[in-house]
Amino acid sequence: MIVDNLARIQSSIEHCAKEYAKHNHLVAHKVTLVAVTKYQSVDSIIALHNLGHCVFGENKVQDLKAKIQAINAIKENLDSNKLVKTTKQHLEVPFFWHFIGTLQTNKINALLALQPILIHSVDSFALALTLDERCKRIDRIQDVLLQVNAANEATKHGFSLESAYDAFLEIRHKVTNLRLRGIMSIGAHSEDKAVVYDSFARTKELYDKIPDVDTLSMGMSEDFVEAIACGSNMVRIGSALFKDDTI
């Protein structure tokens, strides 16, 4: 059930964060949970939102638009829709949407119209500059993360660990309407936890070198424990939250 999944994951995140803080002599280490809605129904999203979780992430622009429209329609027609298990009081609490998937340039305008809180996946100079230009046109300051391919895997997008530092500073220098908050990475695709841990540890080393950043987004359902142990302060979890998606 979603309520049990959320409680279990929140407890695990809290434990991992406390352990990281203890080992690194910190007062506290805060980790933001982004609930990934890829493949999930609007009913399941609302069920999680009803439990008090407000931060969500979507991989595709068209799916994000459809889900936002569906939720807005439910808000507008709540009195006549007795099948929806939510209340006006619940839906008055905002949904904070992150965009976490690969962003194509022809989808930029549509994404910006949806006003995402954070875009995780700026994976090239060209995308950064194009996104910045589109933001200028609509006078929007957009928070973004630079995507890093820490494991140097051909199936993943993003800057290499070797190039990411210089790329980050150069992009920050050239843009006016993007606010680079930090970096995002996907852990190594391996069943060997040591390999996964190493990819996160090297990403954290990069993050620590970059000035004026506050967001390190890494860790998903299968590896968020390792990610937090390496210093992640934002995790993106979908399947572990929504499995057996009854309330």
Biggest sheet layout: 8 strands, parallel
Structural class assignment: alpha/beta
| String of helices and strands | HEHEHHEHEHEHEHEHEH
Query: Looking across the biggest beta sheet, what order are the strands in?
Result: 7-6-5-4-3-2-1-8
| Topology, number of strands | 8
Mean pLDDT: 93
End-to-end Cα distance = 5 Å
Number of helices: 10
- Overall 3D geometry? globular
Low-pLDDT segments: none
Radius of gyration: 18 Å
What fraction strand? 15-25%
Fraction of residues in helices? 40-55%
**Multimeric organization:** single chain
List the helices and strands and how they pair.
Blueprint: H1 2-23, E1 32-36, H2 42-50, E2 55-58, H3 61-76, H4 88-91, E3 96-99, H5 108-113, E4 118-122, H6 125-137, E5 142-148, H7 161-174, E6 178-185, H8 193-209, E7 215-218, H9 224-229, E8 234-237, H10 239-242
Parallel strand pairs: 1-2, 1-8, 2-3, 3-4, 4-5, 5-6, 6-7
Tell me what you see in this structure.
The chain has 10 helices and 8 strands. It has helices spanning 2-23, 42-50, 61-76, 88-91, 108-113, 125-137, 161-174, 193-209, 224-229, 239-242; strands at 32-36, 55-58, 96-99, 118-122, 142-148, 178-185, 215-218, 234-237. Strands 7-6-5-4-3-2-1-8 form an 8-stranded parallel beta sheet. Helix 7 (161-174) links the parallel strand 5 and strand 6. The model has no long low-confidence stretch (mean pLDDT 93).
